[in-house]
């Protein structure tokens, strides 16, 4: 049976020591959550994930969701009770707006709790995760009336939310959407169309399901310029505010899929369903982007979460499984063989996963803090800088944490040999669950294009220049620190590669856009590695300072952490050179042959 232990201490180290959580005390919500409260929230969140959600992960995977003949969907045993406990404990209210029943605490805290919940049970965590995204979109773009109608119940978890973009013929290219919206005299719309692959589209956890649906108002322009966003409840809202009559929304079927079996992936039919416009006509993509960006960060966290839980189990196994002898002589001479953790190649695998996870967690928290600043600060300059960092880092986190998260889950499975392939150990489930993270919320190839095609050139390259400036300033400030050289040296090299790649795009992608497309995935990973290296350098700086003073009885913990960081700088970060070489080779070869050559 797999197990999970939430990395609360590591998270507190990042929040408190590396990123100086106290510095944010003047932002709304932060003063309501001083560090002792943050610690209590994280410990409780960790406990809930470990004790309530994790025990349902394997059984939920085996049982899956079932669509009944009447179109209702039953979630796996135990999910309803766990969801009730989730709502009663207020986990969904953490960062939501106080005007509608939320606690208004930093969004960063909700992000961290989401990591714990997703590691414990990713399929379950998606139900409240999608609701949080829908709440964010409605909070930003809906009219006050719509907010009052939907938000309190969604925030309390009595109702859940979904996002409805995909149609059978329309995935990445949202300009192809056909679902139509017909205006009514009372200001509402009638929505008709079919959406596929809708996560949490139908289930038995909540009283009502609130769908955010992209559709085209009759007569709207073709393409993405003619798409609007609608809120469409499964059940009409009765005059007393509760779920009332059916509203022409039904689940036609659920998908039989590779993983996340505990989450219902539905074909949703909208038959003349009553819906209300969110934001402006034909500006639906802009409004939906609030939800999509929130969901992209959520999916990045899912990638990390599967990497983390798979790592934890692989370590337990590697300390226990006896096979072969250490190359330097027996380490457990009293036993028939040594535990496999003595073998350098096993250590290489485990260290590379953990070194990635710890830097990835740091980058998620760094970005989430920027998210809080961008939404809550009254300093316009700080808001703009943080908004730039969020925009830049969203595709990087989504693409890199999920590509590598999946690869890490496979590598952790490898530690089990043949036993990793067998269901009872749970490792193959982590691999299957992690796989979807690379696909949904914009397949990773699209994230890379978003980074190179949109985020880099935006505002004359302001965001990327700010990022360069921040890392270069760090390097300059610490250039004479010999103790930090094992971190600053490789980081400087990675920065040189990243700046060279950025320059290469400037010189070569304008005249031939295929050069941008051909190098975009490599650029996304080059960027991600550099940002992760920067996170390790910042962690190392903090640790050195801790070790120089009284490390509070945690000297071993800090020394071990430094070893994982050193491993990352020695072994993982140099991959930036290969990415630069691939980017600079351009698109000529791959575009030189016709489609029939493949
Ligand atoms: C389990 C599951 C849950 C999902 N949940 C939801 C949900 O809740 N709501 C929702 O709306 N959707 C959901 N989806 C849909 C998901 O977001 C889409 O599958 C995804 O966006 C890709 O669309 P597609 O499958 O049509 O692939 P396509 O768009 O057909 O893409 C196929 C491949 O071509 C590549 N590609 C396409 N265009 C380009 C381009 N211009 N340049 C380079 N490469 C390109 C893509 O990267 C991809 O690898 C879910 C899907 C699954 C499987």
Characterise this structure.
The chain is of the alpha+beta class and 598 residues long. The chain is 56% helix and 11% strand. The chain contains 17 helices and eleven strands. The protein has helices spanning 8-18, 35-53, 57-63, 79-88, 107-141, 144-156, 284-320, 344-376, 380-414, 427-435, 444-455, 458-477, 485-508, 513-548, 555-572, 575-584, 588-591, and strands spanning 66-67, 73-74, 159-164, 180-183, 189-199, 208-217, 228-233, 235-237, 243-246, 249-254, 265-278. The strands form three sheets. A five-stranded mixed beta barrel has the order 4-5-11-7-6. Strands 1-2 form a two-stranded antiparallel ribbon. Helix 9 crosses helix 10 and helix 9 (380-414) runs antiparallel to helix 11 (444-455). The two termini are 44 Å apart. The mean pLDDT is 96.
Can you count the helices? 17
Secondary-structure class: alpha+beta
Number of strands: 11
Provide the list of bound ligands, each named once.
flavin-adenine dinucleotide
Low-confidence stretches: none
Estimate percent helicity: 55-70%
Sketch the major β-sheet: 5 strands, mixed, barrel
* Lateral arrangement of strands in the main beta sheet: 4-5-11-7-6
Order of helices and strands: HHHEEHHHEEEEEEEEEHHHHHHHHHHH
Strand content: 5-15%
* Radius of gyration (Å): 24 Å
